[in-house]
Amino acid sequence: MPTHTMKTFYGKLKKQGPEAAYYFLGSEDVLKDEAVSQIIGRVLDKSLQDFNLDQVSASQMDPAGLTDLCSTLPMMADRRVVVVRGVEAWKRKTRAKKAAVAYLQDPAPETLLILVQSATDEKPDKALADAAYTVDFGEMSPEDTARWLKREAGQRGVRFDRGAGEHLLATVGANLAALRSEVAKLSGLVVDAPITVQQVGDVVGIHQGETLTDWRDAVLAGDTARAASLIESILNQSGTTGVRMVMALSPALIGVGVARAHYDAGKRGRALYSAVLDSIKAVRPMSLKGLDWKIGRATWRERV
After folding, report:
1. 162 CA to centre of own chain
2. Backbone phi, then psi, for 87, in 5-degree steps?
3. Of 60, 246, 286, 296, which has the fewest CB atoms closer than 10 Å, so is most exposed?
4. Distance of CA 29 to CAs 40, 76, 202, Å?
5. Is the alpha carbon torsion for 186, 190, 195, 196 positive or negative?
6. pLDDT for 87-121, tens place per residue?
7. How far apart are CA 159 and CA 151, in angstroms?
8. β-pairing verdict for 53-57 and 21-25
9. Does residue 269 come out as left (phi exceeding 0), alpha (psi in the -120 to 50 range) or beta?
10. Which residues of the chain have pLDDT under 70?
11. Closest CA to 116 of 20, 52, 5, 21
12. Percentage of the chain surpassing pLDDT 70?
């Protein structure tokens, strides 16, 4: 079967209902968990989930275990759901995987099976992908990440003041698990007004003007004094190392190089602006993965 995007998956789930079996893979475990919850909520009545939902680890299953689980009839319901996590373990336990693939050739009509591969192994398993409806929950674009953050905040009753959500994204990045954790902390603040940039900075521990992005922009602008003054503060931030700082700078330098090449070729103004984005989209270098090119291209153009 082809590998589907998250958007295609949700569209089909809404319009046509769930498949008999799913295989979820990709780098975003949070998105996989959300998809699993959506399916469970659609298929099972909440009051009957204890009877008709099994969540197990692939590493702890013997070859007959999956068939036994999926052959169990639902109780007081039309279907049951079986979620198997960590199916990358089956790449080593070949007998268990063979049993899973054999089951997928003729799945029980009363059981909906969801196979979840951890983000630690993003490479698809061809046998599972051929036998189940496969969805790749890869890294989202900056725009989609911002929308996800807004939705996550709304579900927890958090409203962001101007710039507050952007500051949270600038400090935490596209790590959805970390963003969810920070939003949970913000939801604990006893306030009736929108969360401000200052409050985000107080909770996260990184205030506006002190982010890795601010340091990178100072370097690109040639503001050596400001860039140097930020180094100690940034290195003291959780999860930040010198390597991460270099990795944050390298995509911007690539972007500037692309902009310079088009500038030397005679492009100016809007033509230069568009050419930079078109070039990056065409090549999609790994070092630019997850970067907001629409914002970046304006900065890159200004540095040539």
Report:
1. 24
2. -70, -10
3. 286
4. 17, 31, 28
5. negative
6. 999 988 788 889 999 999 999 999 999 999 999 98
7. 10
8. unpaired
9. left
10. 281, 283-304
11. 21
12. 92
Residue 149 structure tokens = 């953050």
Strand 133-136 and strand 111-116: the pairing is: unpaired
Largest CA distance in the chain: 71
User: What is the per-residue pLDDT across 142-169, written as a single tens digit (0 to 9) for each?
Assistant: 888 999 999 999 999 999 999 999 999 9
Going by C-alpha positions, the residue among 225, 256, 237 that lies closest to residue 170 is 237
Identify the pLDDT of residue 291.
Answer: 47
Q: Which two tokens stand for residue 184?
A: 């949970």
The pair of structure tokens assigned to 94 is 């070949």
The label of the residue with tokens 């291209």 reads: 297
Contact 49, 55 (CB under 8 A): no
Contact of 28 with 140, CB cutoff 8 Å: yes
